[in-house]
What does this fold into?
Amino acid sequence: MENRKYSKSVIILFLLLVFGFTAVSMVWPDRTFSENENRVLASAPEFSVENLFEGKFMSDYEKYITDQFFLRDEWIQLKTMTEMALNKQDINGVYMGKDGYLIERHEDSEIDFEMLAKSKEYLIQFVERYTKRLGKDSVKVMLVPTASEVLLDKLPPFAEGFDQNGMIDEVYASLPEGVAVDVRDILKEHADEYIYYKTDHHWTSLGAFYAYQAYCEAKGFEVPALEDATFTEVSNEFLGTVYSKLNLELSKDSMHTVTLPNTPSKIQMTVDMAEKFNGLYNDEYLSQKDKYSYYLDGNHALTEIASNSEGKGTLLIIKDSYSHCFAPLTLGDYQKVYLVDFRYFNMPISQFIMQYRVTDILVLYNAVTFATDTHTGAFLR
Amino acid sequence: MVFSSILFMFRFLPIVLLLYFIAPKQIRNTILFIASLIFYAWGEPVYVVIMLFSTLVDYTHGLLVYKYKQKGEMKKAKLFVISSMIINLSLLGFFKYTDFIIGNLNLIPGVEIPLLELALPIGISFYTFQTMSYTIDIYRGDALPQKNIISFGAYVALFPQLIAGPIVAYNTVAEQLEGRKETMDDFATGVMRFMTGVGKKVLLANNIGLLWDMISARGVGEVPVLMAWLGITAFAFQIYFDFSGYSDMAIGLGKMMGFHFLENFNYPYVSRSITEFWRRWHISLGSWFRSYVYIPLGGNRQGLKKQIRNIAVVWLLTGIWHGASWNFLLWGVYFGVFLILEKFLWLDFLKKHKIFSHVYTLVIVWVGWALFAFDDMGRVIQYLKAMFGLSGAGFANGETWYLLISYAVMLVILVLASTPYPRQWAMKVMNLLEGKKKADNEAAEKKGITLGGTVSTVLQLAFVAVVFVISTAYLVDATYNPFLYFRF
It folds into this structure.
């Protein structure tokens, strides 16, 4: 009799788990986009005889029901929690750092070292060419290490990955004297401050501010003190790209804007020669998942910033998104600031520099973007 | 289709079970047959024809063999057995071994034959072995022919064991094909078995497989000794929990529908000799070779020389069965050599030395996995060099410790789960909680039923439910869920 009771319980469990989950997942509404994973989810495949015999229908159908399984985000969370319980030091390429820091792990396998060698060569030639044309000290290069190379105290023991420091050393060593703006020391000095986001792969405005201090020093500008800068919190609800890899909320980030005494009062920003903004920020993003795009309206091929600045000359920043909270700090130093992103920019850069009378150039990437960028050929166009 | 997928667990399985149990008994085999064809065609929409062909061939051959056997025309009966074997082995040979043979012929200077580059039909090594066993069993008088082609088709295509075994010999399920009885108790045991299997595959095998993939992808000279052993340990656990997980799922699914398949794994890593290891690892393959190759060749009854020859033949075949490349052949030979040596030299010694025999077995099996893991002999040699400190990468580096810390908890779970102890401990705890006598439990175990007290029921159900739910989470976010038997 006892065995009968046992069997019944097992069968009830089976019905609940297998048939129950099946029923719920069948009636659960489809979603087109997953904000958390930042990707389009698979939709119901179209049936055709050809698709059937090629097996495409079947594999698409499988992707579809897996992507549209009910409570997808919660299931992924459960997986992350399990991995944490197993004391995995990194989950989905993310270190579980101290103090709620989620830090991206970059491995050698992500890097195409041949491409990197070429990128390095392009950059060197670019710097030499425009130093000659625009004058000594007018071209600067800043490669910013990501959190995993700076927040060493927050990493799990023995964590090591792609050697960003080594790469930066190599690039800097082959650049002409005075071109490199090395921000590594100043960032490490402030490693216990809030210079990187806990849930995003970017540095914070504070991190960018310290880097700006190093930039001023390299340019011979007056170096602003931290007390002179005004930080204004614009959000404390930010969950960034690293969070999305785990889908588990351990901490939230706050985002700030910075103004300096010489920050101009009137700013107009034009992106891709079309959309104009009063000021540098797009508030709409603050209510969305992708809050980092608040700064400079996110990634664009070309961003033009004009202002009533008392600075002189025109700065061109060739960049990735690390520059989006750096560029605002430079506005007081230049009449105009342009940002160019080679991932989207089609015009030959030589033509741009001539046409827009660029006087100063800053190449600003985080070390990992530079190491993985495949668009660096544009430096020589 | 594979079992460990959202598609199988939350679409295919519930629908098939529903239809199966609603249907009257007479048409259950038909449902099973059609369901199995869909299951197979899902991933192999064209190759399903080959399986049907193999089914048809052996269905007719079986009948013919029986007919001539009844008439006493043994020569003709034998002819049809041979014909069946030729057809099945040709199928297997054509799809699995042609490119291997061409590739090796091309090594001869002047020879340049283009490769066929055919994808291997999944499960072909499993179902051709099953269909052959059928015809041979009839010839030997171990089974009667199946007159109903649907029932026979259901046997060959039976989706629980179709793509990754166990290899079900016909005579072990002949009666169940017609007169099986689905019971609640069997269904429940089957459910528990299936869910445990899902957990083994998804939580244990896939997880540790990531570690192996990471280490095996590293370049020459970048793998220190400790990391190499960590890597091959990861592989050993991956393949064991993956394969035995599949077997558990197959056996469980079979049981839910009234089939009783034989066991396929029995804690192989607790073995104290290679001989014992192969009695506990992929048992259905071992017994297939034993009854259809080793014994027909004379086994151990025709003198020492012939026995050694027979062992050698079986292990060459076992090796090459696992994949058409030299490393698998070598892997088979490697074990063959140890089996012969143990048999004639040191099995007794091993029996007397407990700790040594465990270490000895694991080291040999682990080195074997290095042979098994790479189909490129160059990489096998590199990896073995790394394991034995000849790659010049030192004993350990920071990355080694990092990985070791990261997988420490997992490794402890894996070690425990590959021994029978956790099960025994759980039984003991439940006994204490329920105040039962040991003898009762042993009796219950023997009958294949599980303890039925409230406490133990709740505990067992909770455990399996947690495993199954977490497995589902891993499948929803399935970044890594490989199918390891595409070469078999």
